[in-house]
From TrEMBL:
Leader sequence residues: none
Origin species: Pelomonas dachongensis
Lineage: Bacteria, Pseudomonadati, Pseudomonadota, Betaproteobacteria, Burkholderiales
Residues that span the membrane, as ranges: 39-69, 128-153, 165-188
PANTHER family for this protein: EXOPOLYSACCHARIDE SYNTHESIS PROTEIN
Swiss-Prot/TrEMBL keywords: Membrane, Transmembrane, Transmembrane helix
Statement: the UniProt record of this protein carries the keyword Protease: no
Superkingdom field: Bacteria
InterPro entries linked: ExoD
Name of protein: Exopolysaccharide biosynthesis protein
Keyword Membrane carried by entry: yes
């Protein structure tokens, strides 16, 4: 299923939601197997915003998603999670927003190197999502940006079956890890220098 087909499917579902709360299982079913891709995008995108606390909260959801991806039956939403529900208005808006997003990325992506963005991608995408969630959780100045971009690229790659984009996601994730390690090393060195200076003063 192309991202344009997915966008059409989500738009149709948004217009046919029944009254009352909508279970997450129904929303996952509307994605036709692409619900993990959408969750990656929805949870990672707000982490780009300079709003205190957003990354810390959403990183927990990303970590749980990463753990789920590492499981043997990661294609299925766990029943306990599926029974949770959203208000109909919120569910409809979310589906419509995702439909517009997938319409947009249809022009920028295409299926290629699909083995890198298919079901077997979970073997590296699960651990990567968990690691990026840890980096987002850490209080590193501007440390949310690269991990969030890496996860958004991964979500788009999954939805579009774009292996080249998945490689780009892995590259950005590696850069995020290196940048975070460098910043933590600099912070450690600065702290050690300050303590040494205070001791000599």
């Amino acid at each position: 299923m192309s991202t344009r087909d997915l966008a059409s499917r989500l738009r149709d579902t948004a217009g046919r939601l029944p009254p009352g709360p909508v279970p997450l299982a129904a929303l996952a079913e509307a994605h036709g197997g692409a619900w993990q891709a959408s969750l990656l995008v929805l949870l990672a995108a707000p982490c780009l915003l300079p709003i205190p606390g957003v990354g810390s909260v959403l990183s927990v959801g990303l970590a749980l998603l990463g753990i789920l991806m590492c499981g043997a039956h990661c294609a299925d939403m766990p029943p306990r999670l599926g029974r949770l529900s959203l208000p109909r208005e919120g569910a409809s808006r979310s589906l419509a927003l995702l439909a517009r997003f997938y319409d947009f990325i249809y022009r920028l992506t295409r299926p290629r190197m699909t083995s890198l963005a298919g079901p077997h991608a979970r073997w590296w995408l699960g651990p990567m999502t968990l690691l990026m969630a840890v980096l987002i959780f850490l209080p590193i100045p501007f440390g949310n940006v690269l991990p969030a971009v890496a996860l958004m690229l991964a979500g788009v790659a999954l939805a579009a079956r774009d292996g080249a984009l998945m490689l780009a996601s892995l590259g950005v994730g590696a850069g995020a890890l290196a940048a975070s390690a460098g910043l933590m090393a600099l912070g450690w060195q600065a702290g050690a220098t300050l303590l040494a200076w205070v001791g000599l003063a």
